[in-house]
Predict the structure of Glycosyl transferase family 8.
Amino acid sequence: MNRRTIVFLAWGDAFINNVGRCIAESRLPDYPILLITDNETDVACLPSHVSVLRRDLMFPGKLAKLELLAAVPDDLETVLFLDVDTRVIGDISLGFEKAERHGVAMAAAPHYSLEDFRSFRSVMVREGVSPCGQMIYNSGVIFFAANRPEVRDIFSLARATASKDEIAPWGDQPYISLAMEMLGFNPYTLSPSFNHRAFGELISGSIRIWHSYNPLPAEAQNLSPGYLHRYENGALVKAVKVPL
């Protein structure tokens, strides 16, 4: 079996505290945990079993994530990257298995149209990709094979493409999806249960990864069968009855 690692990319006190909260409130599989951060951030608040790798950062804000994804050591083999506002609350073994088979496993973003994501169409056209309904994947949860050159090429190309935009209001996410389009790379598409954003989208079945700064609802791990649910006003409510 490939060696599996859980990776966080974070810098600054607030985000480091959120890493600690994610670890404490999640049901993480028993794999090593690595934090990749900048050269200044204090990480003393994190549990002692979290390894720390420091890197120089050139980009500001969310685009720094592209730098750090490109810097993930390739001897880690299979990686689960988690944003700091995630909580793992269910079995996520499928994500690792599919990343080991296909290279990358990700869920679609709720705002799933790459060309319509905050006018990102202009970047697609500039890079020679015709906007015709391509999907945008959510980059807050990424299972990937860090030891495969074709996977590492995705993050390198995303970083290089983002560097052309002095002001990039789109963040890192669309550049990763665009890089996969440009490289002809087809990831395994996970269901939204692996990356639930709590934006009001319907929930079918269970939630495996809660991806929101909103508190995890008490009923998130015990949803009523026979219904599609939706997050509303701090709770998960029955939205649509469906046949069992």
Summary: The two ends are 36 Å apart (CA to CA).
